[in-house]
Protein 1
Amino acid sequence: MPELTYIEGYPEDMRKEIEKVAKTREKRLDYTPPAMTMKQRDEVLTVHPDYAPGGKREISVGPNKGDNAPNEVADLLEAYPLVEKDEIDLSQVDYNPDILIIGGGLAGTTAALWAHDSGIATENILLTNKLRHGDANSIMAEGGTQAADRDIDSVVKHYIDTIGGGHFTNKPDVVRALVEDAPLIMKWLCELGAIFDREENGDLAEKLAGGISVKRMHSCRDYTGLEEFRVLRDEFRTRGIPYLEHYPAIELLTEGNRVTGAVLWNIETGDYKIVKAKATIIATGGYGRLHIRGFPTTNHYGATFDGVVLAYRAGAKLRDIDAVQYHPTGAAYPIQIVGYLLTEKLRGSGAQPVNADGEAFVYPLEPRDVEAAAIIRECYVRDKGLTTPTGLRGVWLDTPLIEIKNGKGYIEKAFPGMIRMYKRYDIDIRKDPVLVFPTLHYQNGGLETDPSGKTNVGGLWVAGEVSGGVHGKNRLMGNSTLDCMVFGRRAGMSTAEYVKSHKDASGITLDHLNQYVQKLEEAGVKRTRRAPVILPDYRGKAALARMIDVF
Amino acid sequence: MADNKSPIMERIAEANKAATTGIDAKDIKNWITIYIMGKAYKVPADLTILAGMEYAGYKFVRGVGCRQGFCGACATVFRKKGDYKLQTGMACQTRAEDGMYLVQIPFTPAETADYDITKEPYEASVFIKYYPEVARCVSCNTCTKACPQDLEVMDYVQDAIRGDFDGLADVSFDCIQCGLCAMRCPAEIVQYNVAQLGRRMYGRYGQGVPDHLRKRVKEINEGTFNEEMAKITACPVEELRQIYTEREKEPE
């Protein structure tokens, strides 16, 4: 293969294709394809990875036996524990907090702060992290947080947008909690010193996003989740709340039908710690690193579904676990950034998806599943996508339109992260469009809760992406960071109340594991799969083929 | 087992397999040699340092986080072939080059000061009180050169000394707190901690809570939306569908 010649970041043949986009840009300035009807939406969704045949099967064990789930998810629910019961010595308790929080993203950190605000002393809280405190999808949320705080907006409108986006499958009581708490969360963040984009008069600057009827997307440039999180983590640190890093939970501990703690594993040295707690909050996030249907992902390295696996073994119920969110616009070129998130705020600010012929082919702000399916259809059914040197397909996202619509200098101010990411590969998103294709983004469903974050299992709360119900089968942009903070807060307050009126858990056992293993055996599940996954493996195949374990 | 298949999904999975399952040598045409902590490894050309190390056989349990340039976990220092300069970057955002010598710095020893921003005056003195070493800045600009986000780090340290909260917030905003500035600083300042304190002060006192937000929170607390909310949450799906379809959209 001859060496490729690059012109400002793109190989020669792609550079030629870009001319077609530039040629039609002026015409497209005043043209937006109409939004799809409900019927058209149903039609295009047949090529969405969630609806295309072959991706799912029935779960064969546990509380949701018989429900449909992606094969990669069912694989982990139908997997054996990493440790056998007798390998763990439960006689020595290493930590004995009132509240154990597993996972330190936005949800877990918020839970700790509100538990503390609700009267729990710092030493009675323990937050544990798989990697560092803050290695979470939260900090990668670029686009924003929704809250209905403008006069023309209302929490009811936010409710309707959220439920419609979720195809009317959402759990109403938790959606109500989400939208009613949203302005309060925004106020809390402002008081803690988070810096949001503002209008000149000091009002919060707000934008539209996919499936949203009123401008209510708050952002911090394109580092929204990072800004929100680092403020909360700073507050957490200055209060001196105890935390552990590089200590993933590998199993919950139970007594009867109540969760009473967890087994933590030192990911560096391999030894374990026993935590006994009155209440446990799981805030471990989602499952992008399972690469469902072979899609690349926007998620961080530790997003491997561990929290659901642990809670499910302890008897916690799931809902909407069949629905996976693919973000419509992941990077498809260059190869180093494939799957990375290109925030919906780009489309919210005027960027259009454009096919190989330079045509705008879809309304830019459909709900995410519809938008993603339309891009897949353009590439693989209508054959109007582009192919990269490594064989990936994608369509253009015409970013230069943003500056034509919002004025010169706008992209640099609103999307510094995006400019930076592409500049490293010599691409200027102000001058040239970028190639995009859907990428695995979000776990729509998860552990079912009531509005306080409590599950059907005693002593167990959940918050954030690990939970299910609030987004139904499809989450809207700006509702995930919000979900984390609304239900982190509620779980923190609810557990604080609970531990004040409940005595210390008397027993810590792994009995639930024995029962689960028995069910797996009865269902005929072979002992080849083990879970939780903890971290994915991207080591080169050649290195793996010659690896031996001699220590 | 699935009894039916989707050819489209299979084609998508095949096209993405290098990014989802690890790289297979047979798919690679161009190779480079990098020196990971001095040891030579032949890895595919055109990878990031992070992906190159994984190809070589490293499974990360430290020095990795988001893999997309947001979290600051994979700070790396390196020298390129024939170049005296000690360079810095994020392993997930830096292209591996032939002849590169590199090592990761996955942790920065640094302490967050014990402050409560609700009790501090909005003045320059807050920096001297909690991070007095900020005054030791000799304006050498080494921090700026080390920043993988290309921020003007020294400028915001000077903003802190002058009490220019607005300037500090603007210049430091894109900081990912990787720690490389602090590791290079001859004055032993932890720049990213100084910036964090300054940004929070600016957010709380320089920006504050806008009136429209205060007003909405008050309305919710007073139950302004309760009746409408009770009605909509009890709404049958068919009716909701209609309300959703017919709802007005605010123009761009």
Protein 2
Amino acid sequence: MSSSADRNEPILLRASGLAAGYGPLQVLWDVDLEVASRECVILLGPNGAGKTTLLKSLLGLVPLWGGQIEFGGSRVERLRTDRRVQAGIAYMSEIGVFPNLSVDENLRLGGYFLPRHETRLRAQRLYAKFPDLVQHRRALAASLSGGQRKMLSLAKAFMSGPRLLVMDEPSAGLSPRYVKEVVATLDGLHAEGLSMLIAEQNLGFLDLADRVCVLDSGRMRFSGDRSTLERDDVLRRSYFGLEEPSRAKPD
Amino acid sequence: MLSYTLLAGLLFGLYFSLVAVGLNLVFGVMRLINLAHGDFLMLGAFLAYGLYAAAGLNPLYAIPAAIVAFMLAGVALYYAVVPRLQASRDPQMLSFILLFGVSQIIEALAVIAFGNNQRAIPATVFGSRPVLLLGQSFPVAWVVSAAVSAVALVVVYVYLYHSRLGYATRAVMASRDEAASTGINVHRVSAIALGTGLALAAVAGVFSAFMLGSIEPDMGIGITTTSFAVIVIGSLGNPLGTVLGGLVYGVGLMVMETFYPSWADLLPYVLLILILLVRPSGLLGQRVRLA
């Protein structure tokens, strides 16, 4: 797997002291997170750890109770979600598509804020990159298979020309075969220099990671490289049930 | 007799589709029931009446004025009310109460402005010769109302299915969060949808003197109920389902008025209860509700 990150790359996204929740329920507690340019950060954590809330708060879909978010050197925590997307943060939710719209409509909406000719050009380029979508361009997104829907979701996110791709459980609902396909696609995009922040429970995505963060009960418990995570007994056993590296089974 | 009833039902069905389509559009985009929908229709009716009474203008001239005025009113109402509602803990309940208040205020202001008297525009304003349709003769005002309704419904279809704004509107209908995280300004799209919804209600109001009887300030609540019945019959949240709902309601109303006239006023309530009990997703069901 590729690793295009460089320790000297500038920080693209810096979130500090994030607190957020729903109604009276606080979900995130003083969370810090950084993603450098060309870096892929995998955000791990058990169900209910607050991964989705963290990603949504970065996008402005969940209001922040406290903390700051910088993207590309500018503060963005007061910007509307669509403004953050236009600034270069693309978000791929678990659903990721509009099931009631056709493949083509989904793709064009990904570039909704761009001039029409630019939308058309980018759509053509993305059809070339994801050729499986071409034959389904008039079909409803709801009629696609899970893997095809994930590819459409990726292509839609790419229409905006993002500098950072934020993904929430891209493996959700996919068979192991499609998970491998998605991981391979993301690996190719990462190799091209795209920064990524991926919340996952599927450990197959660790192969993409330049850095791993672990969120639990709304608090950031770990941030470091994969080998450090794998050497940490508590994290390994408590959260992931990973075997010790020396006894890990080969693929 | 039956063919006349069915044809009249189709004409009224097209009109009732127009009456209700704005309510369904607003519900689809914002997930709130605009309880003041019928009151905006009433204001459209008074606009047409005012132009006719003051300058003798044909009600068709009221249509562009209604579209511009109510589109602007809808956009202003959205930014004044909806973002605050959506930030609340229970936006559905709060919107219900708030829009009921808006309905009462509009009705009270209309009573102050226009009085409690019933008003009418003579149907002969479109000409006095009846129109022959498949051998049956109908008042020209019914045919004009149905024709304008059909044109308005086609415009709604083109807006939703063949324009970038329409794609964005359907995206917001599917998921506000997904739409926002795709880079769509959901507030702008929703404000335009509310403006369009009110403008459609006002255009329907222009013809209410011919299709619903007299024009009066307290007509709003009954129209809102009828509109709700129509959209529930079709498919709640899917503007195109409204057309089926409107046609079923229109034909049903004409059949009742022809054969059981004293029961006709019960129709919207009976249909509403029946559909909610038997097929709560509407006649077109969940599959089309998504479309």
